[in-house]
Amino acid sequence: MNGYKYLDKKGTFQMENPELTSYLYFPIANEAGVMSSVTPSLGGDSKMGQNAFLLSPVSSEDLHNNKASRNFWCNISGKGLWSATGKSAGQQADLFTDAKEETILEAGIMWHKLLRKSRKFGITSEITSLVPYSGELLEIMVVTLKNTGAADLEIIPTAAIPLYGRSADNIRDHRHVTSLLHRIVTTKTGVVLNPTLTFDERGHQKNTCVYGVFGVEENGGEPEGFYPTVEEFIGEGGSFENPKALTDTNIQSQKAGFSIDGYEAIGGIQFKKILLAPKEEKTYIICMGYDKGQEELENAVSMYSSKETCVTALEETKKYWQDKINVSYSSGCKDFDTWMYWVNFQPMLRRIYGCSFLPHHDYGKGGRGWRDLWQDCLALLIMNPDGVRNMLIDNFAGVRMDGTNATIIGSKQGEFIADRNNITRVWMDHGVWPFLTTNLYIMQSGDIDILLKENTYFKDPQAVRGEEKDTLWDTAYGKQLKTESGEIYQGSILEHMLVQHLTAFYDVGEHNHIRLRGADWNDALDLADKRGESVAFTAIYGGNLENMAKLILLLEGKGIKELGFAKELEILLSDDNNLYNDVQKKQELLNRYCHEGIHNISGDKIFISCRELAENLLNKAEWIKDHIRETEWITGERGHSWYNGYYDNNGRRVEGDNDNGVRMMLTSQVFTIMSETATMKQVEDIVKAADEYLYNESIGGYKLNTNFKEVKMDLGRMFGFAYGQKENGAVFSHMAVMYANALYQRGFVQEGYKVIHSLYSHCSNFEKSKIYPGIPEYIGENGRGLYHYLTGAASWLLLTVLTEMYGVKGELGELLFEPKLLLSQFDSNSKAGVDCVFADRKLTIEYYNKNQKEYGEYKITSIAIDGKPYESVREMVLRDDIIRLDAKKTHKIDIVLE
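User: That's the sequence. What structure does it adopt?
Assistant: Structure tokens below.
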């Protein structure tokens, strides 16, 4: 099997014979809503949402089961049918023989090109696919045919792209009935599908989306005829890989102006017969698209009616996305630098696709979840900080007064929706992420005043942390919490975070750790809602409380002596170790608080000094850490020690020695390390235990858990998965990267690097991972990367490599350098660098390790900006000095390590 090779530093790669690897797909999309996936044979799909699929929805298994593709046929006189995408019955049969055609894939950020050369037919095709960045709701194929034989070729070219044109729900639910809604017409250049109605979960509605496939010759020449229905195109006994219409002269193509109703549609576009002399070539432009009406769709298509306009669109689209990726690295490992370029791009893909619209991500109805909002902002803070402040503030509108949050995110920023299925579910980790992201924002920007900005609270029937309903709520009330006087209540961002953390602090199970409820970060720990507890996330809540207290003291340092909060929070601000140690009293206190605001709140305020509030939070944080240290540090029979992170629905400790073997979970270690609950000596012990029980170099590093050898119905559905897959023992990239981040934060640099290097080495080895560049959600037990592109791991890896490995970070708005680079990461000239943006200024930062010292031996001795020495303040450049730099230029910061 051949792997890929990089062609430049911007992520462009090339590989031979991509169709010999299963499950490959590539994303092309734009920010206007077009979301496509393209396989090496131009399979995949295109959609604008759950209810608007242009091409038939595909899951991962459909990639090799489906015969349909974005096909382009050549009926070559004297030789027969040849597919420019390789999707003919004959070409498929030749795949594993000496007659296999030569294929080369070339791809870059948001564009895909496939070259196919047939010695048998004497023809070569080059198909470039893109979605214009400029916002037209189109996917474009530029198809170039070239005669690479010795004799003239007489060819009848025909594009054949099946049109689905409805909701993904209809792939089986009323598939045939919804085809009866189809109204199909042919125009001068294509086939338009305009269903009369839509049948999906929204009910029967008048259709508002028109679909179409259009084609022209390179100079705008129009097609000869059309095959608008699948039934006619494939013919009796035919298929998409052997369509009868292209060989049976009794099946005639239709002319422009033809219409037919009630059939499955296809963009079958037959062009005029051509004669290609040796070395001569001909180009065709195929546009697939959507719009609210036929006229609007045709107007958009008309913008791409020549080869020249498409070439221009390709170059502009490339530049647009390249400009978006403003973080890049230079080190001793050039392939790692380029691989990270793809990782840096992945958070943008998740903002476009959500977590539902690529072949492996075949769940949900689209959009992003609560965690996605906050973790994607991590990448935005690094790459595109403009507008992040307002985004953060707006996102807090999803918090309920009981500390839980809306789980359905609207299409507009700050829009949250009451659950349409009336399903009550509480994820106990959801309160953690808003603070982590907001704290990073404050460190990067110095904007501590954001804590005082106000926003509303989300309101729907769910109350008392999912255990009761507000029977007085109705849609007329609205989705914002009100006071008893009927006014919409607003509280500070700090208040929102306090509500999230303090309610969690009291929401404990019998072992006095925070209840697991519906799940934590691991959604598959979903069967312990009664007695389950998450020690792991209790630890990070404790760490957050400590850091929140530090921010409050900074507010005090700015002259703010006291802060006002909703009167109801006075209950949660009780501060008594006897209370903290009493599970029942904590539960009763929480219940009393939740019932105070089950429908409305009073609207009254309390005021507390910053010093008193900070001490209150620090006491709670210290209690959490002490309690976990005292109760959850375990030592196995083989001498290794680590933290237990969970209790199951029978109230039993999950980790440690067991009759079925050792039980250890990576999540439990990540958050005890990150929160500094684990002492330095304990971190050393955890690393040894993780290396012993969780590390497997052959599959990319650290597994999420050991094999429990039990379908553990009292903890989560994950244990029903095969061991080594997804949440049950796979190398789950997200938590592995967070493990690296935690280790780097605590100064365990060699250990943190091992985590990242193991992941990179495996993912970039195509022979093993079988994926294009980037980081997948997880790596299966056979080494294959799965659920590629749409993973929060990318945001965390971007954050970790930039701020921890390269040590370029903010400290209350100042630019701090704290490199944790190993000697092996410097290039042959003893340099390592990063291009990034800080305080809206483009910077090239370069470290010089001229004495070739290892991490721990070197320190920063000098800093220069654009060649001028800078008097550093504790390895820091002040934000004011950064802002004084010319915003139109890229500035060089040279840092000498000695």
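The longest helix spans residues 535-557.
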